[in-house]
Request: fold
Amino acid sequence: MRVALAAAAILMYGGVALAAVGGGEIVMKNKGGDTAFSHAMHVEDAGLKCSQCHPKLYTNTKQHKAVTMKLMAQGQSCGACHDGKTAFTTVKENCKRCHQQ
Reply:
């Protein structure tokens, strides 16, 4: 009984710790060069909470639809924060920061 309770506690608290870091790094394939999204950079370094992006801006990798640079410049997807005020530069500036050739 004690072993089962200990295992349940480890799984429960371990899951919370993993959720805080997020889904790791996600690489999105696109014509302008692959784009890497780092959950750690946004959650740990920038101090964002999961609920600031999910599910408002992003659902999950299976449900998320491709967004063009034009739509991002209009405030969708990455452009919701990367507008030159909330986060570094606008999505139209410094392409190499996100797109890897």
